[in-house]
Design a protein that fits this description.
alpha+beta, 8-stranded antiparallel beta sheet, 6-stranded antiparallel beta sheet, about 30% helix, globular, binds zinc ion
Length: about 500
């Protein structure tokens, strides 16, 4: 894992509930999103070298959140049994924050580590949904609310674990269900063993220290692919893809990210730029958000492969880093009245293309399914005999409607992308750095081009029925050392369950 330049400072776990509220109140009253982000960075990062349950299979980030929940349970005086309830609940609700869907409101307006509700006014007096969203993306705050509940200023109380009479006598699953009011209490039970093991390990390491930069997801490849509703990764270079993903994952309030603009004479024409559109840019909150994102791109320029950033009629570039932010009026960018051209409504980030120190194109980690879960069914397995195949089926078929986006299963280079005028139809081949080739056949449309480097999860085409296909599906073939192998087994070995 690539570690950020961000200093890994151990603050220790001394924050009392009162202090948390003291921080929150001014935040809501008029603080910037930058302030909220600061408070969201937990001082809870622990060194898990010792006694980590080897079976946990959790990422450092997930473990940090488990530690945060544990410490919060002790701080509020509920103890380790409550910590088990909390961790089991967060495992169920958000996979300890690792489920990317938990970062955005679901159909029931729930969000975050414990999937708490963002309804107006719930978390501070008069807060809007988007303000509540910001508040609830603070893991520590959610843990606090889970254990102690939250009383709104008009006196209405959202119950927490401490409010459940006799919770100590309930099973872990029952206690979790009472707080969450979930229709599926059994779903919590299966996480109890893992939660108990984590709490036991944490109890043994009361003085564990920080050695992790707390926000690895900022730049890491753990970032899920940019949702298509927010931005299109097609044709973007690996550095640009990473910037899009990081921004989308880190700032859920960002709804639109621009990328490739064919024909643009500058970086947007070559997939080396990202435009982060700032909602409500003309308000103080919007302006603070843009400033925060611009500063983030500047701070992480090396890791992101950034060459320059433009925001609010100012430019900062790596080439002239020593001069800091320079006014556009000095020449190198537009400083006139048009808000878009003057970069008042968006942050422009230019990147080198493939210079970031954690390039998605070179990482072997982070394989993904070629089609999003729930949008396909497996219609033919590897090795299956059938009349449509000369001998046996050489791939795994994902049946899905024509036009369904296809993702690169691994990072790598597109070594071929064209119509074979044969059985494969429109076929794209990707070679990963370890030599593994993944082939994507029968596409209705190829959107990647030969020689392009792609990140895992990047869209490369659309499902179709070109070539020898009786209906629309993706035929995925995996080749190692020049031979086909069973994609199902191969994907399983990467931790994926098609
Ligand atoms: Zn731009
Ligand atoms: Zn097939």
């Amino acid at each position: 894992m690539k570690l950020l330049a961000t200093a890994a400072v151990l603050i220790g776990f001394v924050t009392a509930p009162v202090l948390i509220l003291a921080i929150l109140v001014p935040m809501i009253a008029g603080g910037t999103q930058a302030d909220q982000r600061q408070s969201a960075v937990p001082g809870a990062c622990k060194n898990w070298d010792a006694d980590l349950p080897a079976t946990s299979g959790l990422t450092p980030r997930q473990l940090q959140r488990a530690a945060l929940i544990y410490d919060t349970a002790l701080e509020v005086g509920l103890g380790p049994h409550a910590a088990v309830v909390g961790i089991a609940t967060a495992l169920r609700e958000s996979s300890l924050g690792a489920d990317p869907r938990s970062k955005r409101p679901d159909a029931n307006h729930n969000i975050g580590l414990f999937q708490q509700r963002i309804l107006p006014g719930w978390h501070a007096d008069g807060t809007t949904i988007s303000e509540n969203m910001e508040i609830l993306l603070d893991d520590r705050y959610q843990a606090q609310v889970f254990f102690q509940g939250h009383t709104t200023t008009n006196g209405w109380h959202i119950p927490g674990l401490a409010d459940i009479p006799g919770w100590q006598q309930l099973t872990i699953a029952q206690a979790a269900q009472k707080v969450q009011v979930s229709a599926l209490p059994d779903a919590y039970a299966k996480h109890e063993p893992a939660a108990s093991a984590l709490v036991a390990a944490l109890a043994k390491n009361p003085n564990a220290t920080v050695n992790d930069p707390c926000e690895p997801h900022d730049l890491s490849l753990d970032c899920p692919a940019t949702p298509n509703s927010i931005g299109n990764e097609n044709g973007q270079t690996p550095d640009a893809v990473r910037a899009m993903r990081c921004v989308a994952a880190k700032w859920p309030q960002i709804r639109t990210i621009g990328g490739l603009r064919p024909g643009d004479p500058r970086d947007h024409g070559t997939g080396r730029a990202v435009d982060v559109m700032i909602p409500n840019w003309h308000t103080p909150t919007g302006h603070a958000l843009g400033t925060e994102i611009a500063a983030w791109a500047q701070t992480n320029a090396t890791a992101l492969g950034v060459t320059y950033v433009i925001w609010d009629r100012k430019i900062w570039s790596v080439a002239h880093a020593g001069k800091g932010w320079r006014d556009c009026s000095e020449g190198s960018c537009y400083a006139g009245p048009d808000p878009s051209a003057a970069h008042l409504d968006h942050v422009h980030v230019s990147v080198a293309g493939d210079q970031g120190t954690d390039s998605p194109a070179t990482s072997a980690s982070g394989a993904v399914l070629p089609i999003d879960k729930g949008k396909y069914r497996i219609s033919a397995h590897y090795g299956q005999p059938g009349t449509r195949w000369a001998t046996r089926h050489t791939g795994l078929d994902f049946a899905a409607p024509t036009g369904t986006p296809i993702r690169a299963v691994t990072a790598g280079t597109i070594i071929s992308a064209h119509n074979t005028h044969g059985v494969y139809g429109n076929l794209t081949k990707i070679r990963a750095t370890d030599g593994t080739e993944t082939w994507y056949a029968h596409q209705s449309r190829i959107t990647a081009h030969e020689g392009q480097r792609v990140a895992a999860g990047q869209n490369i085409g659309e499902v179709g029925a070109s070539g020898n296909a009786s209906g629309p599906h993706l035929h995925l073939e995996v080749r190692t050392n020049g031979r086909t192998t069973d994609p199902l087994v191969w994907l399983h070995n990467k931790g994926l369950q098609p």
